[in-house]
Amino acid sequence: MTTIQDNIDAVKKQINKTALACGRDPESITLIGVSKRKNADKVFEAIKAGSTHLGENYIQEAVDKIETLGKTSACWHFIGHLQSNKAKFAVRYFDYIHTVDTVKLAREIDRQAAKIGKVQKILLQINIAKEETKSGAGAKEAISLAREFSGFENLSLDGLMCMPPFFSDPEEARIYFKRLGMIQGEIREAGLENLVHLSMGMSNDFRVAIEEGSTMVRVGTAIFGGRD
Asked: 218 lies in which domain range?
């Protein structure tokens, strides 16, 4: 039976191998351990094993764990759907919010960040496959939303995020990762050059995502195993 340490080491090895094979610096890729539904003991085990970036999907669960483990124990990423009325908690506890997809939500995050003198790092979530069951802005809205987000004083729009459909063959996800990279390029050409991050790729398809330019891979099952 493998341990969380074994799993993290294996994932990092795959990240390094994939990055080098496509001419990228492995250090340019951040491994985010997705710890939703995992208790604080398991998350602490991941931190001890070298997981410096952790992703959570649910505000209350995350707040409880961060309070237990300490905010400085890792760089915390909020990667779940965020309601405006929970923005104040996301701002208070998370270094990055990956799932900003409306001006309304961006405005509330900006307002809450201003209250505590913080510039909140955010990513614009794109519903890259136009799935009705998933959040995210449409690809056609990306440039206009990025412009509006960049106008908020207490927000730093650092990149884009997507979650394509799950495929048993990860190659089938490549077209969606490639499209997000194209959108990033279009936004940069429009004069918004700070979009350095592409948050894309999960346990099943992160190698393909890296080949298509991902800078943040969100890996849960391959590190922590299935849901508790």
From this structure: 4-224
Query: What are the pLDDT digits (tens) for 55-90?
Result: 999 999 999 999 999 999 999 999 999 999 999 999
Q: 53 and 33 in contact (C-beta within 8 Å)?
A: yes
From first CA to last CA, the distance across the chain in angstroms is 16
Can you state the angle between helices 4-21 and 40-48, rounded to 10 degrees? 50
Record the pTM.
0.96
Q: What whole-number distance in Å separates Cα of residue 128 and Cα of residue 180?
A: 7
Sort 94 into a burial class: Cβ within 10 Å, 0-12 / 13-18 / 19+.
Answer: buried
Crossing angle between the packed helical segments 142-150 and 174-189, to the nearest 10 degrees: 50
Q: How many domains does the chain have?
A: 1
